[in-house]
Amino acid sequence: MARTRLLADYRPFPFALTETRLRFDLAPTATRVRAELDFAPAVPGADLVLDGAGLRTLSLRIDGVEPDPAAITMGDETLTISAGALPGGSFTLSTEVEIDPERNTALEGLYLSGGIFCTQCEAEGFRHITWYPDRPDVMAPFRVQIRSDLPVLLSNGNPVAAEPGLAEWHDPWPKPAYLFALVAGELEALSDRFTTMTGRDVALNVWVRPGDLPRAGFAMEALKKSMLWDERVYGREYDLDVFNIVAVDDFNMGAMENKGLNIFNSKLVLASPDTATDTDYERIEAVIAHEYFHNWTGNRITCRDWFQLCLKEGLTVFRDQQFTSDMRSAAVKRIEDVVTLRARQFREDAGPLAHPPRPDHYEEINNFYTATVYEKGAEVIGMLKRLVGDGNYRAALDLYFDRHDGQACTIEDWLKVFEDATGRDLTQFARWYTDAGTPEVTLVEAWDEDEAGGTLTLSLSQTTKPTPGQPDKPPRVIPVAVGLIGRNGGEQRPTELLELTGPTQGWRFEGLGSRPVVSALRGFSAPVVLRHDLDEAGRATLLAHDTDPFARWEAGRGLAIDALIARVGGDTDAGAAYVRAIGSFLDGAAADPAFAALVLRLPPEDEIATLLHDRGIVPDPDAIHAARESLARDLARAHEGTLAALFDAMEVPGPYSPDAEPSGRRALRLEALSLLTRLDGGARARALWDGARNMTERMGALASLVRVGQADDALRGMETEFGANRLVMDKFFAVQPMAAAPGRAVEIARTLAGRPDFDWRNPNRFRALIGGLSANHAAFHAADGSGYDFVADWLTRLDPVNPQTTARMASAFETWTRYDAGRRKHARAALERIASLPRLSRNTAEMLTRLLAAGG
Ligand code: TRP
Ligand code: ZN
After folding, report:
1. If phi over 0 gives left and psi between -120 and 50 gives alpha, with beta otherwise, what is residue 617?
2. I need a labelling partner for 138 at 20 to 30 A (CA). Which of 167, 178, 475, 493 fits?
3. Kind of pairing, strands 455-463 and 201-208?
4. Residue 401: enclosing H or E segment and its boundaries?
């Protein structure tokens, strides 16, 4: 079963593919695909090995002639034509196969989503469409013909001809098969145009189902902003006559950057104030940008093999983060990104699924579309930019585009560009790509009042715990941005970038007069865990005065964490310093509401569990929940008046706008509401629900009502009003298991799973309910194992239908070994139950092997 792929086994493909011609005769259960592939040998005497899976092969010819059957060997997912049966020079391979889109529930290859034919080929989906060298380093221009009665027939590139029943597309830019796309269906377009920096006119379309057009406008605006931004900031221009975006309801992930034909999960396209929240709008803008930016970082320059995935994903995430910072608040965006990095990537890095941003082996590549490849991949680029400086970064990127346009590249190519553009040796830096695990950096201060007018010595040391398969972790280069704040609040020293390269190093700051407060890891300058024993007074000073917004937020976070950990340990009154510091902070909160909302939010329970585990304490999910609730209540009680005033003051009058400023006000308002609900039993939340003028207010109110068990009326109202809107109903399915009291959440989830509209084959609906429960820390980790069982039962059911989504959701179990023996026993039993399924998918099997290996 296991078929480990190794980076070390990479060999170039022994043929060049000069053109790919495809013809599709679409039919729901029997689509015919004819392929003509023009090959030229690159290595004499090589066999031709093609990938294919689940294809009914009808014919195969070389230059029009059927080869001797003895020359053909069928493998598990391959077809080999022996060298002897191939002409010495160039030749055309023609095949015809039949496939069944209707029965394709895995959603890779060609499938039907609500009557729309669509494709998903990354990473290895094209082999479900036809025989092909399905690997990213084989690139070719494509000509595609689509025959179908459906009105809209789309593929990559430029349209070259269309008549009723037939469309023809030509994509002149050589691309790997994973970027192929086809869409056919009854769709309507919101259309617009964009003029590029050199004056070329591009037709833009956002294709949606009839009826959804009024919700497509925001996506179109986001697309135009993205195109302009990539020209301005990276000098990158779009390169086809058309750019199409299609929204489909059944999709395994967020969206896909197919050349000239991006396909999106409809939840990342469709938005109106009454159906989408501020967070949805922000994500839509970011993902539209992300997929558009892939046109250069991913498509024009692609990956040599799938081990290099972070070459395109890390860079493209980094670019979309920059874009969002420019469109909205850079400070808020940075903190949001750190919050997700810690919640998802640090968690991954600390458990059985840890892997480097560039892995060197895998069983199933779809299991490596992870927070480490994406978000840590982006952090690594952020560090690189910090280390070389903005000007050098731009020069290196220019060189990257110049040197590698049209190529399939590696991380080594990427680093070489930086070395050549800056003269810097990046040998040690490369460890960030090859080594897994989150470094822990310890900062120790020594203050000498009498030396050189007051000298502060900072010593930094680093260690990284072993990760699966990597016992030893040599030191990395870690950029630690440090500033010094005076005890009275003024900035004593501006930000300085300390480069930690060894296990331990020291830095001296002289002539300081009085002892400053050290503001360390400013801007979260490296993806590390910082241990810095700053006292409560120092933290309060930073929260009040730090000029670096991340460090300021982090200071408040540190106070909250100390309070929570003490409370979990039985000191039920801990946190006076935190409550006091938040009190002073709230006085100025209205100046930057989005930032204030982040400061007010307590760390999630899962993060508290991680922190306890790091300190050698077995986390008790119920105690963590209780501690967090009690701290929230104490915070609310201490500042009830101020919070109530903020709740009123942050109301946003007038028509809805998803812009940063009004979103920030709503975020602060809802953060205040969440705290106040702990005191008023839901009175304010109910009033807000009744008077809500947009989905942001509704969902904020609803989450608070669910938390206090007062949501029945609101939920009924939601069903009545939005029962037919899938995206809104996904929220209905998610908020209940996620926000409910842990003792009730599993029961609630079970009831929801029994509803006729729990269409579990739809990934969004499945993720809403099953993911919603997994996100409720104390419910998923219920002591009786009911949370584990519920999730395991559903993973068992989904695996035969959709392995990709099953395997992704299995990561809910990635922390199972850190809990007590009772919970571990239940978790192991649940995992073993899934693992024992007779025909478990390769995707899920790999995840379970890795998860169970952690248990010893
Ligand atoms: N390349 C896509 C992105 O990051 C993500 C992706 C990979 C994907 N495989 C997928 C999306 C499968 C949907 C289904 O933008
Ligand atoms: Zn991407």
Report:
1. beta
2. 167
3. unpaired
4. helix 390-404
What are the pLDDT digits (tens) for 506-548? 999 999 999 999 999 999 999 999 999 999 999 999 999 999 9
Joined tokens for residue 419: 């070395």
Backbone angles phi, psi at 202, to 5 degrees: -120, 130
Quote the ligand 1 centre to 265 CA distance (angstroms).
Answer: 10
Q: Is the CB of 255 under 6 A from ligand 1?
A: yes
With a CB cutoff of 8 Å and minimum separation 6, the contacts of 731 are: 695, 699, 768
CA distance 435 to 425: 18
Angle between helical axes of 330-340 and 549-568 (0-180°, round to 10): 40
Q: Is the peptide bond before 123 cis (omega within 30 degrees of 0)?
A: yes
Instruction: Tell the residue nearest (CA) to atom 2 of ligand 1.
Output: 256
Of 797, 774, 773, 787, which is closest to residue 823 (Cα–Cα)?
Answer: 787
Q: Give the separation between CA 309 and CA 372, rounded to whole angstroms.
A: 11
The pLDDT, as a whole number, for residue 716 is 98
- Do 366 and 844 touch, CB atoms closer than 8 A? no
Rounded to two decimals, the pTM is: 0.99
Q: What confidence tens digit (pLDDT) does each residue in 18-34 have?
A: 999 999 999 999 999 99
**CATH number of the 302-434 domain:** 1.10.390.10
Ligand 1 near 124 CB (within 6 A): no
Q: Which fold has domain 723-856?
A: Zincin-like fold (1.25.50)
Instruction: Return the residue whose CA atom lies nearest to atom 7 of ligand 1.
Output: 122
CA-wise closest residue to 356 among 414, 437, 294, 301 = 437
Q: CA torsion sign, 240 to 245 to 246 to 251?
A: positive
Mutate to test the pocket of ligand 1, among 252, 306, 320 (most ligand atoms within 8 A of CB): 252
Tell me which CATH code domain 440-533 carries: 2.60.40.1840
Residue identified by tokens 């007018």 is: 453
Question: What are the DSSP calls for 100-150, one per residue?
Answer: -GGG--S-SEEEEETTEEEEE-TTTTGGGTSSB--STT--EEEEEEEE-SS
Q: 297 C-alpha to center of ligand 2: Å?
A: 9
Q: Using CA atoms, how far apart are residues 443 and 461, in angstroms rounded to an integer?
A: 7
Handedness of CA 494, 495, 497, 498 (dihedral sign): positive
Tokens representing 154 are: 């789309």
Are 1-186 and 440-533 the same fold in CATH? yes
Measured in Å, residue 255 CA sits from the centre of ligand 1 at 6
Mean per-residue pLDDT of the chain: 98
Q: What is the fold, at CATH topology level, of the domain defined by 1-186?
A: Immunoglobulin-like (2.60.40)
Half-sphere exposure of 840 (CA within 13 A, CB side): 22
Sorted by where each begins, the domain ranges of the chain are 1-186, 302-434, 440-533, 723-856
